[in-house]
Write a structure and sequence with these properties.
By secondary structure, the chain is mostly helical. Helices cover 73% and strands 0% of the residues. It has 2 domains: 91 residues, Rna Polymerase Sigma Factor, Chain: A, CATH 1.10.1740.10; 59 residues, Orthogonal Bundle (Arc Repressor Mutant, subunit A), CATH 1.10.10.10.
């Protein structure tokens, strides 16, 4: 998908110093950008921050934007990168919290075995069934209806990698649905 002429004119206006042209350039993409950010982070507050940061970075780096590419996909790529960075940070913080919790449980005495099992169960319930890459591919391909090539471009991976991750993500999602909602399997 290429950039349309109106977008191209707005980009040129912003780059020539007319920053007010940025708002009409991004307005059509605000909701889709927020939706992508939410689907990647699964947290509305985090999604708002990701979308806002993506817009700020798009404005800041607009001079580096290749007008032969889709502006929408470029924005999605910025949002995906920001979400990925935040998820990595969140995962590091969660790992530190898990380790602190394990250490606390080890030091608690006879009830520690039961508490350890409950703690692991709570952590398991909080973790997603998809890897970060699988989640990114699934969101962009199946929920945002981007094609394989667009998804690969946004994530900076090969089309083969998109297909492999998408297949794995779909299988995992299907397995979770069938496990949590077995009555859906009866319709097969």
């Amino acid at each position: 998908m290429r950039m349309n002429e109106t977008e191209k004119e707005l980009v040129e206006m912003v780059l020539s110093g007319r920053s007010e042209a940025f708002e009409p350039l991004v307005t059509p993409y605000r909701q889709p950008l927020l939706a992508v950010a939410y689907r990647l982070t699964r947290d509305w507050e985090e999604a708002k921050e990701v979308a806002q940061e993506a817009l700020l970075r798009a404005f800041k780096y607009l001079g580096r934007y290749d007008t032969s590419r889709s502006f929408r996909n470029w924005l999605f790529q910025i949002a995906a990168n920001e979400a990925r960075d935040r998820l990595r940070k969140r995962r590091r913080e969660a790992d530190a919290a898990v380790e602190a919790g394990r250490e606390s449980i080890r030091n608690q005495g006879p009830e520690s075995g039961r508490r350890a099992r409950e703690f692991r169960s709570d952590i398991d319930n909080c973790l997603s069934v998809l890897s970060a890459r699988e989640r990114e591919v699934f969101v962009l391909r199946d929920l945002e209806d981007l094609n394989i090539k667009e998804t690969a471009g946004i994530l900076g991976i090969s089309s083969v990698s998109v297909r492999v991750n998408l297949s794995s993500a779909r299988r995992k999602v299907r397995d979770v649905i069938l496990a949590k909602y077995p009555h859906l399997e009866e319709g097969r």
